[in-house]
Amino acid sequence: MFDRSSMGAGAGALALAPALMATTGGGAGAADDAKYPNWKGQWGQILTPGVGGQNVRFDPTKAFGPAQQAPLTPEYQKVHAASMADQAKGGLGNYPTARCLPGGMPRMMTAASEYVITPETTYILMGGGEDHIRRVFTDGRDWPAALDPTYQGYSIGRWIDENGDGSLSVLEVETRGPFKGPRAYDATGLPLAFDNQSIFKERFHLDKANPNVLHDEITVIDSALTRPWSVDKTYRRSANPRPIWRETSCTEGNNQVVIGKENYFLSGDGLLMPAKRDQPPPDLKYFKPTQAPK
Amino acid sequence: MSSFTLKQASLAGTILASLMGMAFIAPAAAQKATPPDFSSNNVGWVALNGNGPFFEAVPGKQPGPVTQDPAHPFVPNGVGKQPTYRIADLSNPNLKPWVKEYMKKDIDEVLAGKVAFTPGSSCTAAGVPSFMGYGGPNPTVFLQTPKVVWIVFYGNQQIRRVYMDVPHSESPKPSWYGESVGHYEGDTLVIDTIGLNTRTFVDVYRTPHTEKLHVVERWRMIEDGKMMEVTFTVDDPDAFNQPWTGMRRYRRVQQEVPEEICAEGNRHLFDYHIPVANKSDF
Prior knowledge:
The complex is a heterodimer of chains A (294) and B (282).
Chain A: H1 26-29, E1 43-45, H2 74-88, E2 112-117, E3 121-127, E4 133-137, E5 154-160, E6 170-176, E7 199-206, E8 213-221, E9 229-237, E10 256-259, E11 262-266, E12 272-274
Parallel strand pairs in A: 4-5
Antiparallel strand pairs in A: 1-9, 2-3, 3-4, 5-6, 6-7, 7-8, 8-9, 10-11, 11-12
Chain B: H1 6-21, H2 27-32, E1 43-47, H3 97-111, E2 140-144, E3 148-153, E4 158-164, E5 179-185, E6 188-194, E7 214-222, E8 227-235, E9 244-254
Parallel strand pairs in B: 4-5
Antiparallel strand pairs in B: 1-9, 2-3, 3-4, 5-6, 6-7, 7-8, 8-9
């Protein structure tokens, strides 16, 4: 729950967003205001074809994992290597999403998404993963002095009339922690810093040549990196007026069983089995020795 | 899940005051708006009766929802007594024989010690109408646009999409929340849902259904916009002898909603410094 000890009442330094409109039936009308860009519909990320590997990756032009060429510090290069080595032996490495925990920022921006724009908040709704909702507050608020950790971070944005034609075309967003972690960019466990103090700066806008392409120019500032890491994530708008939203439920079919710091596996016959070679069983000290499995 | 501390509660007034310093739509005006405004200014709706029957009967309409077996009274958490699970009254004449048989098997196992798991217990979607069975303090929020209304339950970040003023597609593929189409009738949002998969229950009593399930909901604000009421009709000719109706009420709140992650659960017991017993006591 947030500690809102310093939430201000007036417009903050970051805010260029208009003051809240007094609306009647405003819930239905405000989000359709002509001055906001048309970001309606389902957006799927555009990936460079032929690079191989999983689709969940930070830089969409490169394969996931080491091929991302993330500017990691030597310390976090070792963390990444250890994660992949653990996964090669059957462990989960530095990737809690395998346990159905949210990926948080920035991994959540790989999901299919839709944008619901209101004067106070832009909601980014996602489908097909364990991150479902991201909120960008555009009501002119200041940064709170203290926040509970979250996977998505706390995002404040401002709309910009970049073309000078009275319409708002760019959403600039800054997202701060503290974050819940550990977080990883992708399934190899490519790590963000364990201090969970990342900062993300984003610019959302439509492509100038194609209004059915959306850009999320995103820069990560993180102490696991030697420098800020910037990529341009692009998304294509689905032509289907009623697109399919995948309702995958990670917990439904996840056979990973985590007890303490160890992950085990639920085998096809419903019994607990080791995930790694020579892995000992979990501590069964609370089971009576005379209790036999059913 | 963190609790709302006194410190945070005392700051809520500051937050509310700051929100009210901005342009504000009064609850009564929101109720009278066309279409009704369920959503402006961080408005959310927290379900009532969290400890009682989640679905109330609609006065004057029968049959109503499944109710608790009087032989096994429901005791909720937090009342100083041993809590119990919800046990359905299977004398309900509206249940098809296979539904009664299915539920009796489940009830027998629960009474013998099985945990009464629901889809929500493993953080999967609740489906419809169980979406209206989610309890407080997490709010349900509406995001309204002319063509789509999203209904979001923040307790597990569940999202329903309602496509406005369009018909159903011919053969929607069954899914957790089905296919919802809606329209406004004056002050009421009417939602029609089909295409629900059978992975969910229709209520907290773990009552099953088939893919023929069809739910019609009517959401409207009452009491000058301070409350929300949803009445719904549940029709599944292969599970129930007649369509039945139920109701749930919500109170209006105006608050920012924290990130609640169901899958986090209570996994890290060993980090909570819970006192550890040297030996088992059973």
